[in-house]
Amino acid sequence: MKTALVLVDIQNDYFPGGKMELEGAESAGAAAGRLLAVAREAGWPVCHVQHVMTRPGAPFFLPDTDGVKIHASVAPKDGERIFVKHGPNSFQGTDLKAYLDGLGIERLVIAGMMTHMCVHAVTRAAFDFGYTCVVAHDACATRAVVWNGVEVPAAQVHAAFMGALAWIYAKMLTVDEIVEMRAQEAR
After folding, report:
1. Which of 19, 41, 85, 173 is least buried, going by the fewest C-beta atoms within 10 A?
2. What is the pLDDT of residue 124?
3. pTM summary value
Protein backbone atom coordinates (compact mmCIF):
# COMPACT_ATOMS: atom_id res chain seq x y z
CA MET A 1 0.00 0.00 0.00
CA LYS A 2 1.47 3.39 -0.99
CA THR A 3 2.24 5.16 2.26
CA ALA A 4 3.23 8.69 3.31
CA LEU A 5 4.30 10.04 6.69
CA VAL A 6 2.50 13.13 7.98
CA LEU A 7 4.21 14.91 10.89
CA VAL A 8 1.85 17.45 12.41
CA ASP A 9 3.01 20.57 14.25
CA ILE A 10 6.14 19.19 15.90
CA GLN A 11 7.32 22.71 16.58
CA ASN A 12 9.51 24.42 19.16
CA ASP A 13 6.69 26.15 21.08
CA TYR A 14 5.45 22.73 22.25
CA PHE A 15 8.79 21.77 23.81
CA PRO A 16 10.33 22.86 27.14
CA GLY A 17 10.86 26.62 27.10
CA GLY A 18 8.20 27.11 24.42
CA LYS A 19 5.05 29.17 24.75
CA MET A 20 2.70 26.13 24.87
CA GLU A 21 4.70 23.28 26.40
CA LEU A 22 3.06 19.87 26.13
CA GLU A 23 3.43 16.91 28.47
CA GLY A 24 5.71 14.34 26.93
CA ALA A 25 6.81 16.54 24.03
CA GLU A 26 10.43 15.43 24.24
CA SER A 27 9.66 11.69 24.24
CA ALA A 28 7.04 12.11 21.50
CA GLY A 29 9.50 14.18 19.45
CA ALA A 30 12.17 11.49 19.83
CA ALA A 31 9.68 8.80 18.79
CA ALA A 32 8.62 10.90 15.79
CA GLY A 33 12.29 11.26 14.87
CA ARG A 34 12.66 7.47 14.86
CA LEU A 35 9.53 7.20 12.74
CA LEU A 36 10.91 9.79 10.33
CA ALA A 37 14.09 7.71 9.92
CA VAL A 38 11.95 4.66 9.10
CA ALA A 39 9.95 6.63 6.53
CA ARG A 40 13.08 7.95 4.87
CA GLU A 41 14.61 4.47 4.71
CA ALA A 42 11.37 3.08 3.26
CA GLY A 43 11.18 5.84 0.66
CA TRP A 44 7.83 7.11 1.94
CA PRO A 45 7.03 10.71 1.04
CA VAL A 46 7.38 12.86 4.16
CA CYS A 47 4.94 15.70 4.79
CA HIS A 48 5.86 18.17 7.52
CA VAL A 49 2.91 20.27 8.66
CA GLN A 50 3.73 23.61 10.27
CA HIS A 51 1.09 25.64 12.08
CA VAL A 52 1.54 29.40 11.80
CA MET A 53 -0.96 31.46 13.78
CA THR A 54 -2.38 34.47 11.97
CA ARG A 55 -5.23 35.48 14.24
CA PRO A 56 -4.70 38.64 16.33
CA GLY A 57 -3.59 37.89 19.90
CA ALA A 58 -2.52 34.32 19.18
CA PRO A 59 -0.37 33.10 22.09
CA PHE A 60 2.06 30.81 20.23
CA PHE A 61 3.28 29.69 16.77
CA LEU A 62 3.74 33.33 15.88
CA PRO A 63 5.26 34.15 12.49
CA ASP A 64 8.99 34.82 12.44
CA THR A 65 9.63 33.41 15.92
CA ASP A 66 11.82 30.53 17.06
CA GLY A 67 8.73 28.85 18.50
CA VAL A 68 7.07 28.41 15.11
CA LYS A 69 10.03 26.50 13.66
CA ILE A 70 9.87 22.74 13.17
CA HIS A 71 11.68 21.03 16.04
CA ALA A 72 15.16 19.62 15.47
CA SER A 73 13.95 16.08 16.32
CA VAL A 74 12.12 15.97 12.97
CA ALA A 75 14.00 18.59 10.95
CA PRO A 76 13.01 18.46 7.27
CA LYS A 77 15.55 17.44 4.65
CA ASP A 78 15.74 18.76 1.12
CA GLY A 79 12.88 17.40 -0.95
CA GLU A 80 10.52 16.91 2.00
CA ARG A 81 7.46 19.11 1.70
CA ILE A 82 6.40 21.57 4.38
CA PHE A 83 2.69 22.41 4.42
CA VAL A 84 1.89 25.63 6.27
CA LYS A 85 -1.55 25.77 7.84
CA HIS A 86 -3.41 28.30 9.95
CA GLY A 87 -5.97 26.09 11.71
CA PRO A 88 -6.26 22.60 13.23
CA ASN A 89 -6.94 20.61 10.04
CA SER A 90 -3.80 20.02 7.96
CA PHE A 91 -5.88 19.69 4.80
CA GLN A 92 -7.76 22.97 5.17
CA GLY A 93 -6.17 25.79 3.19
CA THR A 94 -3.23 23.64 2.05
CA ASP A 95 -2.47 21.49 -0.98
CA LEU A 96 -1.73 18.43 1.18
CA LYS A 97 -4.55 16.35 -0.34
CA ALA A 98 -3.59 17.26 -3.91
CA TYR A 99 0.03 16.36 -3.16
CA LEU A 100 -0.87 12.98 -1.63
CA ASP A 101 -3.35 12.15 -4.38
CA GLY A 102 -0.81 13.12 -7.03
CA LEU A 103 1.53 10.49 -5.57
CA GLY A 104 -1.21 7.86 -5.39
CA ILE A 105 -0.96 7.64 -1.60
CA GLU A 106 -3.45 5.26 0.03
CA ARG A 107 -2.23 5.14 3.64
CA LEU A 108 -1.06 7.87 6.01
CA VAL A 109 1.13 7.26 9.01
CA ILE A 110 0.45 10.20 11.32
CA ALA A 111 2.33 11.58 14.32
CA GLY A 112 2.41 14.96 15.97
CA MET A 113 1.06 17.47 18.39
CA MET A 114 -1.49 18.23 19.98
CA THR A 115 -3.30 14.92 20.18
CA HIS A 116 -6.68 16.45 20.97
CA MET A 117 -6.52 19.18 18.35
CA CYS A 118 -4.46 18.90 15.17
CA VAL A 119 -3.66 15.16 15.25
CA HIS A 120 -7.33 14.44 15.85
CA ALA A 121 -8.44 16.86 13.10
CA VAL A 122 -6.07 15.56 10.40
CA THR A 123 -6.83 11.91 11.16
CA ARG A 124 -10.59 12.36 10.92
CA ALA A 125 -10.27 14.42 7.75
CA ALA A 126 -7.90 11.89 6.18
CA PHE A 127 -10.33 9.06 6.94
CA ASP A 128 -13.17 11.09 5.40
CA PHE A 129 -11.04 11.54 2.28
CA GLY A 130 -10.65 7.76 2.02
CA TYR A 131 -7.10 7.27 3.30
CA THR A 132 -6.23 4.34 5.53
CA CYS A 133 -4.80 5.91 8.68
CA VAL A 134 -2.22 4.67 11.18
CA VAL A 135 -1.46 6.88 14.17
CA ALA A 136 1.85 6.44 15.99
CA HIS A 137 0.32 7.11 19.40
CA ASP A 138 3.66 7.23 21.22
CA ALA A 139 4.87 9.92 18.78
CA CYS A 140 2.07 12.29 19.81
CA ALA A 141 1.78 14.65 22.78
CA THR A 142 -0.86 16.84 24.34
CA ARG A 143 -1.65 18.80 27.50
CA ALA A 144 -4.23 18.90 30.22
CA VAL A 145 -7.49 20.64 29.38
CA VAL A 146 -10.09 22.33 31.54
CA TRP A 147 -13.74 22.23 30.67
CA ASN A 148 -16.68 23.32 32.78
CA GLY A 149 -14.47 23.55 35.85
CA VAL A 150 -13.04 20.05 35.44
CA GLU A 151 -9.34 19.59 34.76
CA VAL A 152 -8.56 16.54 32.64
CA PRO A 153 -4.91 15.39 32.91
CA ALA A 154 -2.89 15.14 29.69
CA ALA A 155 -2.60 11.34 29.86
CA GLN A 156 -6.39 11.04 30.02
CA VAL A 157 -6.87 13.57 27.21
CA HIS A 158 -4.43 11.57 25.07
CA ALA A 159 -6.11 8.24 25.92
CA ALA A 160 -9.60 9.57 25.24
CA PHE A 161 -8.74 11.02 21.85
CA MET A 162 -6.64 8.04 20.76
CA GLY A 163 -9.47 5.76 21.89
CA ALA A 164 -12.00 7.76 19.89
CA LEU A 165 -9.84 7.63 16.75
CA ALA A 166 -9.20 3.90 17.24
CA TRP A 167 -12.93 3.23 17.19
CA ILE A 168 -13.15 3.61 13.39
CA TYR A 169 -10.79 6.28 12.06
CA ALA A 170 -7.31 4.81 12.50
CA LYS A 171 -5.20 1.91 13.59
CA MET A 172 -3.20 2.84 16.69
CA LEU A 173 0.37 1.57 16.76
CA THR A 174 3.60 2.40 18.55
CA VAL A 175 6.62 3.43 16.51
CA ASP A 176 8.11 -0.02 17.20
CA GLU A 177 4.97 -1.67 15.83
CA ILE A 178 5.15 0.52 12.72
CA VAL A 179 8.78 -0.51 12.26
CA GLU A 180 7.64 -4.16 12.42
CA MET A 181 4.73 -3.47 10.03
CA ARG A 182 7.18 -1.92 7.58
CA ALA A 183 9.58 -4.89 7.90
CA GLN A 184 6.77 -7.38 7.22
CA GLU A 185 5.63 -5.43 4.16
CA ALA A 186 9.18 -5.29 2.82
CA ARG A 187 9.47 -9.09 2.85
Report:
1. 41
2. 98
3. 0.97
